[in-house]
Design brief:
single chain; alpha/beta; Isoleucyl-tRNA Synthetase, Domain 1; OB fold (Dihydrolipoamide Acetyltransferase, E2P); six-stranded parallel sheet; binds ligand ME8
């Protein structure tokens, strides 16, 4: 074993539903990073788990008619089972309700109270329950009622309560200095820029306790309070490797700080600002790198449990198998941007990249070798220039691959492997070994040997992404794959392996050639039913837009003047500037909510209702209307 170590984490997921493709994505990236170190014989710790306290979990449990602990318990097997099926080889699964975590968090709070970094005060503010976060002053227009959450865009609620604060404001300058000294702390750079500008604009102290809920880590020394989720949840990254636990000091010292923390961009502020400040306050070193990825989207929206627009990864398994889905998610979704998940695209990549470029090269090389009695293949004493060039190309590829893997750009690393596979295919085909066998057996054997060396090298680099398939490949070529040895270093030494080819079925089946493909289902949105009496509360009225003007100080809003069959037209503001010009709306009849409480917008316009729109496939807002014209003021029923 190499004496280096690698510690990687995933976010801990809210245990309010089974995992979906988005959570699989983060966990998979962490697994790929962990396996990339394991394949180099580096001692590795991979932590994942679930976030089980807080209002969001308590509310979900209440809706389900269960107590919070049995509610969260029911999802744990689903996580562990899915991770197993997707070959996620974690070291430890932490649950924030685990006793050792609860105790360590309490100790952490008590220590920071002594140091003066935690103090008692009172908090008032707009709070988003789904995201478990308060809006800051910068996030909404003063005077707005229930402003929308900047992350999930759902209405927030007003919260006012005594609470404990963490002195985040004291860490503004040290954080900025830290970002400057550690430019690679946040990957990719675009995310780093957002964080720096957030910190520069001023940090407020953060509330870290609640009195309005009881489902949380009890606050030490004040039983009316429980710990607010982030102060509890972020600490999992240290408690998961022994922090605050008797007899585990050596483990903690060995693993902390984390080398890579994988997370989605929704929680970057907590990880890049709160978390380093918490650690600084406790005198602990900071993680080396935050790998922040974008969304897997379905249409316009982030795939999420609470939105109910997620794909069940279990269904994908049946149709395509773990390795192919792992490959598609790692290669197709660049961590630098959001990406759409598409079944057609997944199938196309399985056919072209996996079945053709990789599987077919193995199949053709093997069947040719077996046909001409060359199952046992020794490397030639000297290699031709063409074979030497392929070996050199493999070294270049490994170097580029290493560089991309180290910075967390796994998708780019895979591009280098595919470029090399194309070169290997060209090497094989251009030399036509099936013809050469008739005149030059040694030349023929050299081509087969070099191609198998190339496949082995690609296989080692692809093992972190497709472990099961690459292990089948190693078996097929008779390569002894041992994790205790630095496999990447072994790929760099001049080619001299002896292989034993066995033959077998194609490594990857093309989806279009499979007899039965189980169509993956998109899970149905969760329906929160309402009674007819709730519907009756909303007054929907048909009206005609008699005038419409653009509001110059807003890039979203249009000001409509609407005839709703009343004495005066109503003024209604609508955020559809990007979809309609004022002229396109004048004279149009639409549907309006007419008993919505009037709202002041931009401090000077009172909006007296709401026009109804629906988004089309391009994300454009399309107004709702009736099938035939009806008198203004008629109600929908
Ligand atoms: O935020 N695309 O938990 P969570 C890509 N408990 N990644 C996605 C995704 C999508 N559509 N949807 C979710 C929490 N994710 C807190 C974290 S950590 C101390 C506490 C991934 O269940 C992504 O990593 O809402 C995102 O950051 C995480 O799941 C949020 O999971």
């Amino acid at each position: 074993m190499n004496n280096k170590k690698f510690y990687v984490t995933t976010p801990i997921y809210y245990a309010t539903a089974a995992p979906h493709l988005g959570t699989l994505y983060s966990t998979l990236l962490a697994d790929v990073a962990a396996r990339w170190h394991k394949v180099q014989a580096i001692d590795t710790f991979f932590l994942t788990g679930t976030d089980e306290f807080g209002q969001k979990v308590a509310q979900a449990a209440q809706q389900a008619g269960k107590d919070p602990k049995s509610f969260v318990d029911q999802f744990i097997p689903a996580y562990k089972d899915l991770w197993k099926k997707y070959l996620i080889d974690y070291t430890h699964f932490i649950r924030t309700t685990d006793d050792y975590h609860v105790k360590a968090v309490q100790q952490w709070i008590a220590d920071l109270q002594k140091k003066g970094d935690i103090y008692k005060g009172a908090y008032e503010g707009w709070y988003c329950t789904p995201c478990e976060t308060f809006l800051t002053e910068k996030d909404f227009e003063v005077g707005t009622k229930n402003p929308l959450c900047t992350s999930c865009e759902r209405p927030t609620g007003w919260v006012c309560e005594p609470c404990y604060f963490f002195k985040l404001s004291a860490y503004q300058d040290v954080l900025l200095q830290f970002f400057q000294d550690n430019p690679n702390f946040i990957t990719p750079k675009e995310r780093a820029a957002e964080v720096v500008s957030f910190v520069r604009s001023g940090l407020q102290d953060v509330s870290i306790s609640r009195t309005t809920i009881s489902w949380g880590v009890p606050f030490p020394g004040d039983e009316k309070h429980v710990t607010y989720v982030w102060a509890d949840a972020l600490n999992n990254y240290i408690t998961g490797v022994g922090y605050g636990q008797e007899g585990k000091q050596a483990d903690f010292k060995k693993w902390w700080p984390a080398d890579m923390q994988v997370l989605g961009k929704d929680i970057v502020r907590f990880h890049a600002v709160y978390w380093p400040a918490f650690l600084m306050a406790s005198g602990l070193p900071l993680p080396k790198q935050l790998l922040v990825h974008g969304w897997i989207k379905m249409g316009d929206y982030k795939m999420s449990k609470s939105r109910g627009n997620s794909i069940d990864p279990q269904n994908l398994l049946q149709s395509y198998g773990a390795d192919a889905v792992r490959y598609y998610l790692t290669r197709q979704l660049a961590i630098t941007q959001d990406g759409q998940f598409s079944i057609e695209d997944l199938e196309q990549k399985i056919s072209s990249d996996l079945a053709n470029d990789l599987g077919n090269l193995l199949q053709r090389t093997e069947s040719l070798a077996l046909k001409y009695d060359a199952a046992t293949l020794t490397a030639p004493q000297t290699w031709s220039n063409t074979s030497q060039a392929l070996y050199q190309a493999s070294l270049t590829m490994i170097e580029q691959f290493e560089k991309e893997m180290e910075r967390g750009y796994f998708h780019s690393a895979l591009n280098h492997v595919w470029k090399f596979l194309h070169e290997s295919n060209a090497y094989f085909h251009n030399q036509e070994p099936w013809k050469l066998i008739k005149t030059d057996k040694a030349g023929f054997l050299e081509i087969i040997s070099a191609t198998v060396h190339a496949l082995k090298t690609a296989g080692i680099l692809l093992w972190p992404v497709m472990p099961a398939k690459m292990e089948s490949l190693f078996e097929r070529i008779g390569y002894q794959f041992e994790l205790g040895k630095d496999q990447v270093a072994l790929c760099k030494i001049p080619w001299k392996n002896t292989f034993m080819l066995t033959g077998g079925n194609p490594l990857f089946e093309k989806p279009e050639e499979k007899k039965e493909t189980v169509a993956p289902e998109v899970t149905q949105p969760v329906v929160n039913y309402i009674g007819i009496e709730d519907l009756a509360k909303v007054e929907l009225t048909v009206g005609t837009i008699i005038d419409c003007q653009s509001i110059p100080e807003s890039d979203k809003l249009l000001k409509l003047s609407v005839d709703l069959g009343e004495a005066q037209p109503r003024c209604i503001l609508s955020g559809v500037k990007s979809s309609y010009s004022p002229e396109q709306l004048i004279g149009k009849q639409g549907v309006f909510v007419t008993n919505l409480k009037p709202r002041m917008m931009l401090k000077k316009y009172e909006s007296q209702g709401m026009m109804l729109f629906v988004k089309n496939q391009d994300g454009q807002m399309i107004f709702a209307t009736t099938e035939k014209e009806v008198p203004n003021g008629n109600k929908l029923q």
